[in-house]
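Handout, section B. The chain below has 188 residues.
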Amino acid sequence: MRYMTAGESHGPELTAIIEGLPAGLPLSEEEINHELARRQTGYGRGGRMKIEKDRVRITSGIRHGKTIGSPVTLVVENKDWKNWTTVMSVAEVPEKDRSLRRVARPRPGHADLVGGMKYHHRDLRNVLERSSARETTMRVAIGAIAKKILEELDIIVAGHVICLGGIQAEIPGNISIQEIKEISEASE
């Protein structure tokens, strides 16, 4: 399985193309949307999460609910794009509009500085648009497909915290993977 993602955080959409999927794999937009909804829960979410309610659209590689062996294309629309059409325009814009939302100071702990140095960008927005948390949307969608392949092989993916800052979680001795998954998905 190989994939490629495209799109910027404030661009019109995020896109992924996945190849190498077996033909006949049952797959629906709703299964992917379930994982995208999980991505948007939890603490520490910014204002962007109030705008974006991620929903995938499958535009190729699936027919009648099953993969057909050709590349699968996924698209997630950025609803906030309407507020960024000038800032993120693909077409030339007047000089006065080029400096809108310009980023000149790198954010600590992000790829802004090294990306700006590597690609010689004076406006770090060119880097941060691809190195933002928003970009993980497509990685989650692709992961949903990978989980579907594993599910077909009777492999269940689940995760939970067993220790945080030296504090051990109390976990019942005979808990199943399915129960761990259900508890994890029910928590926020």
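Note. The chain has a mean pLDDT of 90. Compare this with the example in section A.
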